[in-house]
């Protein structure tokens, strides 16, 4: 496992630190079903036998998050960020969608890499189930950028979401709050949506 869950010299210079040490779940907590998460062979594993979330105990506002993940076929999950109410992740956390949508030809607001239910990814950048994907989430004030496997798939200004339940283009979304009005400091979370998924090299640099 040489090079797994370690920082490069460049990452150290840019202020990155590990959120997952490769051996324990220190710094993380589960909202429910903690038995659904484990550490194995340097990987953070979601067994996919229940539901719930694993979240950082600390909170973040402006940051760059990097991680790698691979899923079983048909797995649906997500990377949550700026999540403020641990009892209500869906409505108080933004989400980068993780889903096995390698075969999709038309991108939707729930395709892998989407800013879930807000912005569809610009292209299909996800790899087939069983292969490792590299995801980056960047937050800077109202600006959110999502990168999947080296391709920027979403660039969004959250200040444009001024109404609950409505996107700037007039389409509906499921959220009961206007994202412009939401706090910008929150937890980072990983979703257990009943599908098997592994994570590694989870790192963050605060701005």
From TrEMBL:
Domain 3-keto-alpha-glucoside-1,2-lyase/3-keto-2-hydroxy-glucal hydratase as annotated: residue spans: 15-204
Any one GO molecular function term: hydrolase activity
InterPro entries: AL/BT2_dom (IPR010496)
One Pfam family named in its UniProt record: 3keto-disac_hyd
Record protein name field: DUF1080 domain-containing protein
